Amino acid sequence: MKVIIADDELKVAKLIKALIDWDALGMELCGIARNGNEALDLIREHRPDVVITDIRMPGLGGIELIERSKELAPSLEFVIISGYRHFNYAHSAMKYGVVDYLLKPIDKDELRMTLEKLKEKITARESAVSERDQISRIAESERRRRRAGLYGFLMDPSNRPLITVDYLNENFGYAFSADTFRYVVFKVDGGYDEVYSESLALFGEKLRGICDRQLGGLCAELEIEFIYSGANIVLNYDAGRNDEVRGALKDVFDEVRVQNNYFPSGVFTMLAGAASGDAAGLADSWHNAEWMMYERLIIGAGSYYEDLPEKPGSEKVAALSRSVAKAIEQAMDVMDADALRSVISDASAQLLAVDRLTGRDVRDFAKSVHDTWLTFALQYNVTYPGGERLRDEFLRHFDLMPTARAALDFLVHRISEAFGELREAIGDANGRPVTNAKLYIKEHFAEPIAIDDIAEAQGFNSSYFSTLFKKETGSTFSEYLRGVRMDEAKRLLKETNSSVAVICELVGYNDTKHFSSSFRKATGVKPSEYRKLYAWER
């Protein structure tokens, strides 16, 4: 708590300074002024809480000082020092809220008690202000929370029948009154550590300020809420102002890019969903804006887009995801890091070559592949540090990729990195006899393989090793070997024109009839019928 003394008699001012143990009282003496003008300068410089002033001083007197100071700081407290003959002057200061005055000669105890009383008064006032501010912040936070609930509500298709102006206003605290509704996404792409830092909150406030200035006067309602690395903007305005709003949105985008001091390597994209003439259409506008957000992976981030027509995804993507899932299972089965990386890299290259590929296709493929990886990790009872957070972290990182190529490269890198951590956590694969056996089967399934030979190579008798193999894989050695051979046979039937007889030999069978019988038992159809079923994928 800061204090200033103003008195034209220096010895009086020094006496006041000496009478009080300022540290013990929790106060700081900031300066001594010889007249009212000096005191006013000190008040401007130090912003004190209390001023102890003489009533009569040359130049600017005590009353004038109080009047001028109250204009600068209405809550500033004064203690008036007065001689008996100046009591009437002191009394006139009461109209400025000054009620504390001391008569000369100054009594030490009286001065101390006066300052203690003022300290209690100031502390109580600050506490009340702090409490009001806290209540105000809580109320604003609750208002924002209610309004932010609209975003999740719009994402659920089953809520569409409920979307009316009255329902949204009553349940989410909006005041929709105009006839046009629009949903806009402002997307930030860039490095994870750069975007997800304290700069994101600062950037959010900056964006809110620009939107308020550019759009506030045009809209009946305007709400902005950051979700991960994107700002979700809801607009409600009169249809006659559609062109003005479109122009203002572009101005917002341009101004943010010019004034970007938060993300040096950031890429901004603004995606304005189609405007709608009714509240229910706000869900369609959100869907359109979200579709464009993913489509930026294909058409390019870093621009302003609005109301782009949505395109259906490619049917080939789902088939590609299924084939990758099987290959991931096989690679993980033998803990083959190179095979895993190759599978995902090759599939990503195939995906980018698909005709009419959409951004949502890229996102769905990446999510499917990563989910497959995690599913198999759990299925094989594999745990590793951070595994429970891996999916959320992957989606957050993936969300920051500005192109399809960057997104898929990140998918390959992230799974390869996580697979390396996984292998470290469970130990080197070369020390695991069943893993070694599975790896040997993968590399030699076209040759005659007997469990006795593999068990001996691992240092076990065949009976014990057979039990160990069944315990770890859930299958007998023969069932596992047959499964690997059948998987390869299915791949060859789908991807090559080799005859059934040739494929029979390539997968380790020397009798076509036996091979066909085993294949039918495993798949429910003959090899030739299986080839016909999947001919459309070739």
Brief rundown of the structure:
The protein has 538 residues and is α/β, with parallel strands linked by helices. 59% of the residues lie in helices and 11% in strands.
Q: Top keywords for this entry?
A:
five-stranded mixed beta sheet, 538 residues, alpha/beta, five-stranded parallel beta sheet, elongated, 59% helix
Outline the structure in words.
This protein has helices at about 10-20, 20-25, 35-45, 60-70, 85-90, 110-155, 165-170, 190-195, 200-215, 240-260, 280-300, 315-335, 335-350, 360-380, 390-400, 405-425, 435-445, 450-455, 460-475, 475-495, 500-505, 510-525, 525-535, and strands at about 1-5, 30-35, 50-55, 75-80, 100-105, 180-190, 220-225, 230-235, 265-270, 305. The protein is α/β, with parallel strands linked by helices and about 550 residues long. Strands 2-1-3-4-5 form a five-stranded parallel β-sheet, with helices on both faces. α5 (about 85-90) links the parallel β4 and β5 (about 100-105). α14 packs parallel to α16 (about 405-425). The longest helix is centred in the first third of the chain and has 48 residues, at about 110-155. It starts with a strand and ends in a 5-residue tail after the last helix.
